[in-house]
Amino acid sequence: MVGLTAWSLTGAALILLLLPPSLEDCAHIRVSTPIVRLGDPVTASCTINQTCSSLGPESQIVWKLEAELQPGGKQQHLPNGAQESTITLPHLNHPRALLSCCLLWRGSLQILDQAELQAGYPPVVPSNLSCLMNLTTNSLFCQWEPGPDSYLSTSFTLKSFKSRENCQTPMGSIPDCMAEDRQSHCSIPRKHLQLYQYMGIWVQAKNALGTSKSSQLCLSPIDVVKLEPPTLGALYPSPRKDPPQPECLQLHWETWKPSLYMEQKCELRHQPQLGEAHWTVVSPLPSTVPGYELCGLLPSTVYILQIRCIRWPLPGYWSNWSPILKLVTGQQAPTVRLDTWWRQRQRDPRTVDMQLLWKPVPLQENSRQIQGYLVSWQPLNQSREARVLCNTTKLTCTFSLPSEVREVVLVAYNTGGTSPPTRVVFLENRGPPLTGLHTVARDPHSLWVGWDLPIPQPQGYVIEWGLGPHLHGDNNKTWRLEHNGSITGTLLQENIRPFQLCEITVTSLYQDAVGPSQNIYAYSLEMAPSHAPELQLKHIGSTWAQLEWTPHTPELGESPLTNYAIFWTNAQDQSFSTILNASSHDFVLHGLEPASLYHVRLMAASQAWTINSTSLTLITLASEDSLMHILLGLIGLLFLFICLCAVSCFCCRPSRKNPLWPSIPDPAHSSLGSWVPVIKAEEIFQLPRLRDPVMPPITKITVLEEEENKPEPWESNDDSGNYNLPTLAPGLCTPG
Ligand SMILES: *[C@@H]1O[C@H](CO)[C@@H](O)[C@H](O)[C@H]1NC(C)=O
Ligand SMILES: *[C@@H]1O[C@H](CO)[C@@H](O)[C@H](O)[C@H]1NC(C)=O
Ligand SMILES: *[C@@H]1O[C@H](CO)[C@@H](O)[C@H](O)[C@H]1NC(C)=O
Ligand SMILES: *[C@@H]1O[C@H](CO)[C@@H](O)[C@H](O)[C@H]1NC(C)=O
Ligand SMILES: *[C@@H]1O[C@H](CO)[C@@H](O)[C@H](O)[C@H]1NC(C)=O
Ligand SMILES: *[C@@H]1O[C@H](CO)[C@@H](O)[C@H](O)[C@H]1NC(C)=O
Ligand SMILES: *[C@@H]1O[C@H](CO)[C@@H](O)[C@H](O)[C@H]1NC(C)=O
Ligand SMILES: *[C@@H]1O[C@H](CO)[C@@H](O)[C@H](O)[C@H]1NC(C)=O
Ligand SMILES: *[C@@H]1O[C@H](CO)[C@@H](O)[C@H](O)[C@H]1NC(C)=O
């Protein structure tokens, strides 16, 4: 049973075919009304013919709506022996549904008969009925809004009658116009109409549940005429004016032929084909003009134009807009300011080579249409014609001039004419120089160049920049004219590349002179130098080491050093560091451990980079205490030797009397305190050897071993003269 409910309608139909032929006519469904309003009840009965002997007398009739079993059927025997089941479906909620009468036969459910039920709504009143007279098809075309779906097949009929002005009394019939299926418009052909006679029109909607009527229109077909637009075109060339005005377009249009007899007015609309343009409407215009000049437009701009017409002053409807016409307005003479700059080179005493550079700065929107530039020179003799030096589309031109010529004239031209002439005066180079030129890198592709405001204040500045120094020649430099003399810097954003040296030249411009050009070199992004200054060991002691280095000479455009830093680590990997200013070139490390190994590194830093030197390894001298022990030992041995000599002399030559006594030194010299300077002397006497100019410079690793530092000849140290060791020997001999 459960499986059965899932059967599709086709499945059910198949069963109907499989039934024994004798069963086919056995049952018959009758429905109270096959079409009802949605949600209304439906009553149906199913009768089984008594002649159907193959069915048992007590067969159970079952009802199904679509695939769902419907309980509530009441079954009874009719007097004629037939069986009948009656069911009432309380709400029919589907626009269409199949009701089936079934029987349990040989263990399965068999469909005996089916009936289609329909539900829907009566038609809604059609709204917005409107009509227009189409002279192309020669028919009155009416359309309306049919309203929401009634779910039932609905027919729309346009009904009308001829009448007087108020459409109250019909004066002649017009055949109905049946709208095609699912269409909500209908056309009444001209043969049923009288163009100038009033008629009442309405639309009627009808379906199985009812009929509805729209409100009635009262019109005369000619009053709702909708014309076709006229044909719009351009008039070339302008018949009257030569040359054509750049802000005007020459147009003509012709009314639609079938409407020639009608009085009409037209309107033209146009808009420039630019981003956010709006339509401008010109109205009223006649329906036919041989030529029309539309002015007040932007020069060299594409315009879109359309035209439409209406029967007028009598009633009618506006025609559609004509197809789009695109036209371009003429060119206007360039309205530009030309910024100029020049470079000159004396070729020989009588001739200079000039390179004139310029830049058009548009003074109005849409004024950039320039086809070329003319540079000319007006000889001093006014009666001669100006000489054209260049006729070019580029922004630069090179020419030779007699030395005395200090002025040329530059104009920009296009088909509309030439711009106002720009006088270029080659000013003398005698203004005050610009000071304090500096640069700041903003990002890898821009540089700020700044300067001190000169006194007197210039009228402007020319900034030229390019890969430097002179890498691509002067010809490939970017330049800019700044018209504000009170600025003290400007941002350069074009033609700046990281890691490439940029040469910047700034020239100040005065009323009748230019200042001398000032150059500066800079990087927008700088690479660190390939190596840092190398550390060299100059002197070393047991607790200190003196280091020196040759400062790196900065190259063009390189950022100056901001500081140095020295890092040193001992054998226990303890790190120390100190920061030195950029003018330092040596440093003494203090507080080192005697006889220890140190790694030292120099870091040089600028605003743009830091770089480390290679590591220098050094070993400090052994401590002063151990040296003193050795010295004391040596002196002890000497003393013993002298004493032995003395004893042997005394013993072998008893006649001699203390020959040594008279040379006994001052007791102050024999005190132990006087030994301390002696140790200092030890230290110092090693230095001469290190200072020795012939000694090779100590570079990477310097291992200064104690043995190597054995005392050198005394003479080399002048200061050690105060401490003459041999003179001490007698003092030591002083018996205590
Ligand atoms: C019953 O069947 C007979 C013979 O098949 C037929 O003539 C008669 O019309 C049927 N009656 C009904 C109510 O279907
Ligand atoms: C009927 O026409 C009016 C005015 O033209 C419009 O506002 C309204 O939306 C239209 N109704 C329908 C159902 O289209
Ligand atoms: C008149 O009918 C024709 C044919 O359907 C159509 O092409 C034309 O646009 C209609 N004219 C107007 C003014 O609606
Ligand atoms: C100007 O040119 C004319 C014609 O070439 C010549 O006659 C005249 O002498 C010239 N004047 C000067 C001042 O050069
Ligand atoms: C400049 O060159 C253009 C195009 O080559 C030419 O049409 C124009 O006549 C020239 N102008 C002058 C003044 O030589
Ligand atoms: C000028 O500079 C551009 C890049 O700015 C370069 O591509 C070009 O080769 C240079 N031209 C000359 C002649 O140096
Ligand atoms: C010129 O530059 C100065 C300083 O940047 C500024 O205050 C002034 O408004 C500028 N003048 C003009 C006309 O732009
Ligand atoms: C840099 O340091 C040295 C030694 O420490 C000092 O003599 C010098 O005055 C310093 N220079 C500056 C500019 O601070
Ligand atoms: C240089 O060495 C110091 C100490 O080893 C380190 O802190 C610093 O990051 C190094 N700098 C560079 C640029 O390698």
TrEMBL record:
Residues 705-736 are annotated as: Disordered. Pfam families: fn3 (PF00041), Lep_receptor_Ig (PF06328). Keywords: Disulfide bond, Glycoprotein, Immunoglobulin domain, Membrane, Receptor, Repeat, Signal, Transmembrane, Transmembrane helix. It comes from the Eukaryota. The keyword Signal applies. GO terms for molecular function: cytokine binding; cytokine receptor activity. SMART domains: FN3. Residues 1-24 form the signal peptide. It is a single-pass type I membrane protein. GO terms for biological process: cell adhesion. The keyword Nucleotide-binding does not apply. GO terms for cellular component: endocytic vesicle membrane; external side of plasma membrane; receptor complex. Belongs to the type I cytokine receptor family. Type 2 subfamily. This is Granulocyte colony-stimulating factor receptor. It comes from Erinaceus europaeus (Western European hedgehog). The lineage of its organism: Eukaryota, Metazoa, Chordata, Craniata, Vertebrata.
